[in-house]
């Protein structure tokens, strides 16, 4: 298996004041350890200010969503070209909150993934089942279905350069983390599906994040799993100290080339 640099991104969702966001970005930028790729995803109005705060650091800026068109009459939206222009390196696409609360569809996710690559952004493609789906034994059917759609418009080299985040909906914001074994089982299935579709070489390069109540005290065990290459962190990314502990856990578990 080829070595993958772990990647941890803090999804700040609709939290923090402007001052808090800039201060947090500065703290993370100054203190992020090596051996792990790091991103932060502030609310859209803060992207420019956080880009300034991160300037010259290794920490990348991420948007929380994108439209698929480069420009146009789409009130309330931001385009991948605009996000790239303000300094984004990553964009989160298909987060379960977008799917559940704002009508995001698999077809939209596919178009957004295509558009992200067209504009030089790394998509973080989110997949994951609800509690009802897990209890009905549909975890892999749902997750792999979302995966198929998310990667459907990508060429193999684009797939290889994408990040996929497995975020079981029942673990998001609930304090109920998937066990390392539960997460690894799904991550292994995701990588196997990517191998079927794009070949083993591509599948070995895609970084698979786990997301859902990741904290400093469970991050190391999750990231020690062979197919877990980092984390998409919500609540625990809002305070520098806790987020930096997660970054250190990822860095220490890094399987570097
Ligand atoms: P929590 O870490 O707060 O559970 O959120 C996870 C998440 O949704 C990250 O995108």
Gap between N and C termini, in Å? 11 Å
Question: Helical amount among residues, as a percent range?
Answer: 40-55%
Mean pLDDT: 96
SSE string? EHEHEHEHHEHHHEHHEHEH
CATH topology: TIM Barrel
- Poorly predicted regions are none
- Count of domain modules: 1
CATH H-level homologous superfamily name: Aldolase class I
Radius of gyration: 17 Å
Helical run tally = 12
Write up this protein.
The longest helix is centred in the C-terminal third of the chain and has 19 residues, at 180-198. By secondary structure, the chain is of the alpha/beta class. The chain is globular and about 45 Å long. It has a single domain (7-233), classed as TIM Barrel (Alpha-Beta Barrel), CATH 3.20.20. It starts with 6 loop residues before the first strand and ends in a 5-residue tail after the last helix. 44% of the residues lie in helices and 15% in strands. Strand 1 (7-11), helix 1 (18-31) and strand 2 form a beta-alpha-beta unit. An 8-stranded parallel β-barrel has the order 1-2-3-4-5-6-7-8, surrounded by 6 helices. 1,3-dihydroxyacetonephosphate (13P) is lined by residues 11, 95, 167, 172-173, 211-214, 232-236.
Brief synopsis:
By secondary structure, the chain is of the alpha/beta class.
Keywords:
alpha/beta; 8-stranded parallel β-barrel; 257 residues; binds 1,3-dihydroxyacetonephosphate; TIM Barrel
Q: Helices and strands in order, then pairings?
A:
Elements: E1 7-11, H1 18-31, E2 37-41, H2 47-54, E3 60-63, H3 80-85, E4 88-93, H4 96-101, H5 106-118, E5 122-127, H6 131-135, H7 139-150, H8 156-160, E6 163-166, H9 180-198, H10 200-203, E7 207-211, H11 216-223, E8 230-233, H12 240-252
Parallel strand pairs: 1-2, 1-8, 2-3, 3-4, 4-5, 5-6, 6-7, 7-8
Bound molecules: 1,3-dihydroxyacetonephosphate.
Residues 11, 95, 167, 172-173, 211-214, 232-236 line the site of 1,3-dihydroxyacetonephosphate (13P).
């Amino acid at each position: 298996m080829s070595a993958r640099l772990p990647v941890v991104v803090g999804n700040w969702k609709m939290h923090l004041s402007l001052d808090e966001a800039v201060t947090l970005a500065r703290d993370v930028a100054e203190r992020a350890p090596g051996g792990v790729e790091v991103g932060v995803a502030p609310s859209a109005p803060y992207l420019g200010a956080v880009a300034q705060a991160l300037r010259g650091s290794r920490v990348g800026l991420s948007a929380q969503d994108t439209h698929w068109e480069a420009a146009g009459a789409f009130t309330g939206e931001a385009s991948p070209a605009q996000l790239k222009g303000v300094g984004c390196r990553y964009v989160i696409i298909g987060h379960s909150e977008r799917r559940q609360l704002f009508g995001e569809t698999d077809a939209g996710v596919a178009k957004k993934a295509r558009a992200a690559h067209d504009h030089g952004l790394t998509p973080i493609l989110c997949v994951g089942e609800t509690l009802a789906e897990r209890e009905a034994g549909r975890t892999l059917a749902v997750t792999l279905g979302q995966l198929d759609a998310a990667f459907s418009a990508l060429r193999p080299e684009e797939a290889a350069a994408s990040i996929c985040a497995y975020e079981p909906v029942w673990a998001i914001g609930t304090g109920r983390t998937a066990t390392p074994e539960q997460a690894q089982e799904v991550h292994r299935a995701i990588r196997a599906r990517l191998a079927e579709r794009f070949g083993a070489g591509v599948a070995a390069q895609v970084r698979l994040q786990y997301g859902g109540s990741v904290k400093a005290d469970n991050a190391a065990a999750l990231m020690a799993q062979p197919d877990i290459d980092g984390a998409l962190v919500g609540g625990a990314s809002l305070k520098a100290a806790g987020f930096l502990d997660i970054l250190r856990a990822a860095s220490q578990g890094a399987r570097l080339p």
